[in-house]
Specification:
mainly alpha; about 130 residues; homodimer; DNA-binding
DNA sequence: CCGCATCCCCGATGATACTG
DNA sequence: CAGTATCATCGGGGATGCGG
């Protein structure tokens, strides 16, 4: 399996480095992908860390049904949330953060907090850099 | 410019959400890309947060010259590091974290720390999930 | 309502070869 | 040593339609 190979490669790299600020690249890449953080954020503020598919779909601007499904499936696979299927008509599906999922929120918050604080400066740096190259 | 449009879209989304765990998706995506965190990590532990191109190239397993150049250029553009060019023969180029770049390390550490702690559990969850689907 | 399957495009990344 | 240019590749992700 290609994916598993790449993941374990990343782990090896991390272990070889042996210092703190590093972490499995694959996880960071996954969590930093286009939609994951947004989904986690919406579940973070939802009552009981729980929301249904259509709610998430409508709350997250621009996400397609396909990408929401894929993102949720990945998070479920990682054990960060669980899927609750209700056999009703029409069907209802709810997603809820697991203990591990909730446990990630403080760390995520610390990182996103830094980003929020430094975002304006980064934007300014980018503009300056781009302008210097016309 | 397509990229700028997408970035500002992300900002709008963030502002509309108005809660804490969220941050500009673009930044997280950039920092979570294949090489950025590894480069930041290596600079984090380098003397004076400073290292030359070839050192980084040799330290980071698997990175190509091209991708290291691109990653460094992006980080420079974001204002997270500065480029020091020495006109010698052969030429020497050093990269050093800026104040903002160094300021990111604690937040990064908090996040990567969580990942390191929960990585084994996530791996187990993935295996269980994959096995359940054969 | 939920989500899977299919098609398709484009950007990200790698490989390689070439300059200052 | 550091960086650029070019070409090939691969996977993310959007659009759409079908199925349970």
């Amino acid at each position: 399996m290609k994916k598993a190979t790449m993941a374990s490669d990343a782990v090896e790299i991390e272990e070889r480095l042996g210092f703190k600020p590093c972490a499995p690249t694959g996880v960071l890449a996954r969590l930093g992908d286009k939609w994951t953080v947004l989904v986690m954020s919406h579940l973070a503020v939802a009552p009981d860390h729980r929301a249904r598919f259509s709610t998430l779909k409508n709350s997250i601007e621009g996400i397609t049904q396909r990408m929401l499904t894929l993102t949720l499936r990945n998070l479920e696979r990682d054990g960060l949330l669980t899927r609750h299927y209700f056999t009703e008509v029409p069907p209802r599906v709810e997603y809820q953060l697991t203990e591990m999922g909730s446990g990630m929120l403080p760390a995520l918050e610390s990182f996103t907090s830094w980003i929020r604080e430094n975002w304006p400066l980064m934007e300014a740096c980018r503009r300056a850099f781009d302008e210097a190259r016309q």
